[in-house]
């Protein structure tokens, strides 16, 4: 069975863009199970010959912020439950948000490898800005740009080592 990698994080950080990059030219599998898993997408990927399944967690934008945050927590918990490793994505354009801190709190308690991916690092200035994500207490991070692909090789090299 192929290892499972979940991409989690608040909306708009670039999870789906990265997911699509990982599963390039492959067909995304939309989970047929209705209910709680309906907005998670699964796809096959591989790096240096190591195959794995990627989960792109969605999350609906619901009415209140409260419900919205609960939905994200639920998605994160479900994804973590079945994943062998987690990519926690944040966004350097916005910087650290309260929602990032909430997800980080959940992840610090998880006994699985967590890779903090600081996305939208499209240029050197943003590489400097990324240091603020140390404050999430998750240690080292991987600066990446899901749009131009930079940094993703370094992240994937480390990721497949734990699968
Ligand atoms: P998700 O909600 O986390 O799945 O985020 P999406 O993948 O839908 O991306 C949200 C927005 O961020 C879109 O407008 C993307 O084009 C943009 N985006 C994603 N990755 C990058 C990146 O590496 N750099 C920049 N500048 N924008 C990005
Ligand atoms: Mg998405």
From TrEMBL:
Residue intervals of the EngA-type G domain: 3-163
Binding-site residues for GTP 1, renumbered to this chain: 9-16, 56-60, 119-122
Top-level taxon: Bacteria
Role of this protein: GTPase that plays an essential role in the late steps of ribosome biogenesis.
Subunit comment: Associates with the 50S ribosomal subunit.
Family assignment from sequence similarity: Belongs to the TRAFAC class TrmE-Era-EngA-EngB-Septin-like GTPase superfamily. EngA (Der) GTPase family.
Listed name of the protein: GTPase Der
Gene name in the database record: der
Positions spanned in the full protein: 1 to 163 of 433
């Amino acid at each position: 069975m192929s290892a499972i990698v979940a991409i989690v994080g608040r909306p708009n950080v670039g999870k789906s863009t990265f997911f699509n990059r990982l599963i390039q030219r492959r067909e995304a599998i939309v989970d047929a199970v209705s209910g709680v898993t309906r907005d998670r997408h699964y796809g096959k990927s591989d790096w240096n010959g190591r195959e794995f399944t990627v989960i792109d967690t969605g999350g609906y934008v619901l009415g209140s912020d409260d419900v919205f945050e609960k939905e994200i927590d639920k998605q994160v918990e479900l994804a973590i439950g079945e994943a062998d490793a987690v990519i926690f994505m944040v966004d350097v354009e916005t910087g650290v948000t309260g929602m990032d801190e909430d997800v980080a709190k959940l992840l610090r308690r998880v006994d699985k490898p967590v890779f903090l991916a600081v996305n939208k690092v499209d240029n050197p200035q943003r590489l400097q800005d990324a240091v603020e994500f140390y404050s999430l207490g998750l240690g080292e991070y991987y600066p990446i740009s899901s749009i131009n692909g930079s940094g993703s090789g370094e992240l994937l090299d480390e990721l497949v080592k734990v699968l």
